[in-house]
Write a structure and sequence with these properties.
single chain, 7-stranded parallel β-sheet, 315 residues, alpha/beta, 8 helices
Length: 315
């Protein structure tokens, strides 16, 4: 069981992100660290990462957010949850803080956006039904294979449950799409893996999915390859990652290979009526289009956004 360390958060709480697709939006991290335990997660490289068996929960987030909004002369149009954690971690205490913080924003007429591989409970859906035009969601899922799920994303919601979360969010009136991220070359981007998933997504009316390939920081590539091999999913010769200068200090497959693979993904998605759009955050040389990680690009805010304090994760 992951240990929850409670802390009081100091303002400001609405902070800027360096992620290109989010840089125009204020963001909130509910926790420092994440209980979902994804093996490839980049936050493990942060100096402030509390380790795999603990998270720091900012339990006063909703209260600090309320006070901060009272002092603003101009409200943000939209706020994003959570660039360096997941707002829908399975821990009840985290869910309570996330729900309360989202409610504060929605009641102030502020839109919310999030990406999650977590657990969207009925309490969240009940809240979202009251504000259907203010909620933008992406659900991350790359495979329905339970071995891959248990190996790479051990504490996330099961893949089938995440697909159903997309359906329920859409039924609530929210703008909900899928996110095929991170795709693992020759493991999760092959038709044998993606076709069952795309069929499920098409059945619930999804017509758009963002996509990006796995981005590994130093030291993660070898451990992930070992884990994939243990579950029988590691093809010979993987990983074949080369350093990609357009992606910061990390490893991705070369840009031309990504171009070819994205083209194949687009063609595959087209057969199911789904537009698969690469994320420009990690593929700036391949696309200028938004991956919609925070909803429509037209909703970017020009409200002043504070720089992130030192205590929470930075991006």
């Amino acid at each position: 069981m992951v240990k929850v360390i409670r802390k009081q958060r100091k303002p400001p709480i609405l902070t800027a992100s360096s992620i290109p697709c989010l840089k125009q939006l204020p963001t909130i991290n509910i926790t420092q660290g994440c209980a979902l335990g994804c093996t490839y997660c980049y936050i493990k490289g942060y100096p402030s990462y509390p380790g795999p068996e603990a998270i720091i929960l900012f339990e006063n987030t909703a209260d600090v957010l309320t006070d901060e909004l009272k002092r603003k002369r101009r409200m943000p149009k939209r706020v994003y949850f959570s660039p360096s954690s997941d707002a829908f971690q399975y821990l009840p205490d985290v869910q309570v803080v996330s729900l309360g913080s989202m409610q504060v924003l929605l009641e102030h007429g502020i839109e919310i956006a999030f990406l999650t591989k977590g657990f969207i409970t009925e309490q969240f859906l009940d809240l979202f039904r009251n504000y259907p035009q203010q909620v933008y969601a992406q659900i991350g899922v790359t495979s329905l294979d339970r071995k891959i799920w248990r190996t790479c994303e051990p504490r996330t919601a099961p893949p089938e449950q995440r697909v159903q979360s997309v359906r329920k969010l859409r039924q609530s009136g929210a703008d909900a799409t899928a996110r095929l991220d991170p795709l693992i070359p020759d493991v999760t981007d092959i038709p044998e893996n993606l076709v069952p998933l795309l069929e499920k997504l098409a059945d619930i009316g999804v017509t758009f999915a963002a996509a990006s390939y796995i981005f590994l920081r130093a030291g993660f590539s070898r451990s992930l390859a070992t884990q994939l091999s243990e579950c029988g999913s590691n093809p010979k010769g993987w990983p074949r990652h080369a350093f990609a200068k357009d992606c910061g200090e990390g490893f991705m497959i070369p840009v031309e290979e990504r171009r070819q693979r994205f083209a194949a993904l687009a063609q595959l998605g087209h057969g199911y009526g789904i537009t698969i759009q690469p994320c420009r955050c990690k593929n700036p040389t391949l696309t200028n289009e938004t991956c919609r990680i925070a909803g429509p690009a037209s909703a970017s805010t020009k409200s002043p956004v504070a720089k992130a304090p030192l205590l929470p994760f930075g991006d």
